[in-house]
Amino acid sequence: MTTDRAAGPGGTVQGAQVTARIALLLRLVGRAPAGALISDLARDSGLTRPTVHRLLASLAAEGLLDHDALRHTWHYGPEIFVMGVVAAERYPIEELARPSLRRLAEETGESAFLSIRRGAETVCLLREEGSFPIRSFVLHEGVRFPLGVASAGLAILAFLPEDEVTALLEGSLTEAWGPAHTVAGIRSHLEQTRSTGYAVNPGLILEGSWGMGAAIFDRSGRPAWALSLTGIEPRFRPERQPMLGRLLLEEANRITQELQKPGLPAH
């Protein structure tokens, strides 16, 4: 791997550039549960296909990725699993959230999710399927959305400081998710979220696929995670939303309170 002593154009440290490219490819692979094609990785990363192939091969040699030679797809490798197991000891949020997801799924019949904020995005971590037979498949483990897109991102963004909200929206690519994701449109949803305490995504990503979310706060009082419910539009009629919102807020508050207890990591 290139070392930090070599600098590229504009003074960019090549070693740091390689690290950033590797991190980007790992995130992109994680977005595709069924496996990522090298053509898609090259397109989404903005890197040339030979560069992507070289980095993927290096990651596979280290056990961080696996290559399915029959389907020509790339997947997380065993070393990623090991790292995740070790890291989980420092981040108990999944253990705390699982009972809440089960209760939400059982009480509502909808699919329940836990998402985490990572920079300007949310990443879905956990899913619990509800009993209702018709489901929305917009959200799944590993999928990422910009803050302000989907109910989890709206719930988190709504309770960040205003200067941070402005900075995030100014640098956001949310409009790529459809005409409803303008800055003005998102701000309207943020106001509604602050008023009720929970976010509603009325089919903004995929027509007919609705979601609702509530933020979970860390010890410093910042929204760092979100619980959400997703399903088809008839299951999220206005008369049912207050009940769903109340359940989401109760479970989000329960986890927030657990995170305040001594002995747990601050984030």
Automatic annotation (TrEMBL):
Coiled-coil regions, chain positions: none
Q: Which SUPFAM superfamilies match?
A: GAF domain-like, Winged helix' DNA-binding domain
Q: Where is the HTH iclR-type domain?
A: 16-78
Q: Does the keyword Transcription regulation apply?
A: yes
One Pfam family in the UniProt entry: IclR_C
Kindly list the GO molecular function terms attached to this UniProt entry: DNA binding; DNA-binding transcription factor activity
Q: Which UniProt keywords apply?
A: DNA-binding, Transcription, Transcription regulation
Limits of the IclR-ED domain: 79-261
**Which SMART domains is this protein grouped with?**
HTH_ICLR
**GO biological process assignments:** negative regulation of DNA-templated transcription
Q: What PANTHER family does the annotation carry? A: HELIX-TURN-HELIX TRANSCRIPTIONAL REGULATOR, ICLR FAMILY, TRANSCRIPTIONAL REGULATORY PROTEIN
Q: What is this protein called?
A: IclR family transcriptional regulator
Q: Which organism is it from?
A: Cryobacterium zhongshanensis
- Organismal lineage: Bacteria, Bacillati, Actinomycetota, Actinomycetes, Micrococcales
